[in-house]
Amino acid sequence: MNQTQNLTNSSFLQSVKSKMRDYGMLIKFSLNLTVVFSATFGYLMALGSSFEWFYLFVLALGGFLITSSANAINQIIEKDYDKMMKRTANRPLSAGRMDLTEAVLIAGLTGIGGLALIGYYFNTLAALLGAISLIAYAFVYTPLKRVSPIAVFVGAIPGALPILIGYVAALGGAGLNIIAYSLFAIQFLWQFPHFWAIGWLGYDDYKKAGFKLLGTKVDGRNRLTALQSLAYIIAMIVVSLIPTIIGITSWITVVFVLVLGSYFAYTAIRLARRCDNPSALKMMFASFYYLPIVQIVMVLDKIF
């Protein structure tokens, strides 16, 4: 009897773990955390050391829920295309482990819940920006990926909005200022070399599903893509200096921006010279290093 009960309990626990893994995949849990980080970064840059932990937690939770909704809708729309790509074929909807109705319910509840939290605890403008971000990502960027490479530009807008959401959550309408716009611009520009590196590495997989992230009629894995990446990196470095120029951060931020930015630019130059996957991989990892480190340094620089 005990053995049978243990087997039943074990089976139940395995089922719960499997379902939780699928939920994590549906909302893209790891990617979600980077968005939450951006929102809290904007909030901390607005308030400095005067922030309250409770409200920081609520902002993180609200941002997490809104992004969860956008990611779930993305997979609902792309479930048939996800089946065509190796890296996405095992997602719960494309693999058939989750019902479409269940995914729609999760997307609706998380979206409404996240916007309600931001609107109630902060302000209507922050909630409005959250709604714009969700709609732009799920209903504009997602279908546009199969139409034109301009989707990368469109997707960079909701990708950078979390910083504005955090800043406006802290200061309301007064948060729409040059500081907030410069922080938004940094993350907006960063996304181009970041996503082009990913698009380069996954080009064949994306092509199977008809996603046009690098090129339409010709293979986008060429010197032009690398040089465009370099141009955006240089622009990003320049914009990253604005917080110091206007007195929000110090020379410490400048050092990190120039050192990490120079390496990031070097990887783009290397990609332009070699046009190969190893170089694209280096540029992708350089993008991983640049943004979070620079943002952390900026926050600490402002607070201390």
Kindly describe this structure:
The protein has 13 helices and no strands. Helices cover 79% and strands 0% of the residues. The protein starts with a helix and ends with a helix. It has helices spanning 2-26, 29-47, 53-77, 79-82, 100-121, 124-144, 151-171, 178-201, 203-209, 223-240, 242-245, 251-274, 277-303. Helix 3 runs antiparallel to helix 5 (100-121), helix 3 runs parallel beside helix 6 and helix 12 (251-274) runs antiparallel to helix 13 (277-303).
Radius of gyration from CA coordinates: 21 Å
DSSP helix fraction: over 70%
Order of helices and strands: HHHHHHHHHHHHH
Distance between the termini: 62 Å
Low-confidence stretches: none
Q: Which term fits the overall shape?
A: globular
Number of strands: 0
List the helices and strands and how they pair.
Elements: H1 2-26, H2 29-47, H3 53-77, H4 79-82, H5 100-121, H6 124-144, H7 151-171, H8 178-201, H9 203-209, H10 223-240, H11 242-245, H12 251-274, H13 277-303
Helix pairs in contact: 2-3, 2-7, 2-13, 3-5, 3-6, 5-6, 6-7, 7-8, 8-10, 8-13, 10-12, 12-13
Descriptive keywords:
single chain, 304 residues, mainly alpha, 79% helix
Give a brief description.
The protein has 304 residues and is mainly alpha-helical. The protein has helices at residues 2-26, 29-47, 53-77, 79-82, 100-121, 124-144, 151-171, 178-201, 203-209, 223-240, 242-245, 251-274, 277-303.
